[in-house]
Amino acid sequence: MRLLLVEDDNHVAAALSAVLTRHGFDVTHARNGEEALRALVPESDGFGVVLLDLGLPDQDGYEVCGKIRKRTSTPVIMVTARSDVRSRIHGLNLGADDYVVKPYDTGELLARIHAVSRRTAHEESAQTADSLLHLGPMRIELPTRQVSVDGSVVQLTRKEFDLLALLAQRPGVVFRREQIISEVWQTSWEGTGRTLEVHVASLRAKLRLPALIETVRGVGYRLVAPAA
């Protein structure tokens, strides 16, 4: 798999590139946001994953993430020292697929890269059901992956849509956390649990329906159909 590593520290990039290469990745190193965006021009050979450090010298990492998402659907894993939920939600809202908080274990990073690539391959090969869901003021178009509330389109990331669609197809049914992670993230890796919590929080904020997804303590989540 080709991987774009966006990292301004050459020593860190060299060490990480060596590890990734030993695990079968073809690594391209970009030292700043501008180099990363040039590497992602449409006519270039596709990358399987972008590993984006947020501490870049020329542009804010979040800004670079937003620009990447506008020009390609390549999965983006953010690398950040910011561990608060708000920062993570902001990154996911900009289109990041996952995040790793510094300092991180190399094994964890590799697991997240493989998990993201598996999810993307699964999505590309899956057939989207021809269906339309109406839940109160919310409309979910499964074929086009479009969601609107009161007629206004809500922009969701791939994983946010997958999570919402899973819950919305069986409103009122409690989905166990393990089941959601298995079906949406295509993995049983325990580290994905925190990512699930962040995605639920992001969905509640974007849809402006805080009671839509109910937490069932100790079990998982369910969608409570809103009134029209």
What does this entry look like structurally?
One of its GO terms (cellular component) is cytosol. Keywords: DNA-binding, Phosphoprotein, Transcription, Transcription regulation, Two-component regulatory system. One of its GO terms (molecular function) is transcription cis-regulatory region binding. The protein has 228 residues and is an alpha/beta fold. It folds into 2 domains: 117 residues, 3-Layer(aba) Sandwich (Rossmann fold), CATH 3.40.50.2300; 99 residues, Arc Repressor Mutant, subunit A (Orthogonal Bundle). The strands form 3 sheets. It has a 5-stranded parallel sheet with strand order 2-1-3-4-5, sandwiched between helices. Strands 6-7-8-9 form a 4-stranded antiparallel sheet, with helices on one face. A 3-stranded antiparallel sheet has the order 10-12-11. The protein is globular, with a radius of gyration of 18 Å.
Based on the coordinates given, report the CATH architecture of the largest domain. Answer: 3-Layer(aba) Sandwich
Helix content: 40-55%
Query: CATH homologous superfamily name of the largest domain?
Result: Response regulator
- State the end-to-end CA separation: 46 Å
Strand order of the largest sheet: 2-1-3-4-5
Biggest sheet statistics: 5 strands, parallel
List low-pLDDT spans: 125-130
- The shape is globular
Q: Beta fraction of the residues?
A: 15-25%
Structural category is alpha/beta
Number of strands: 12
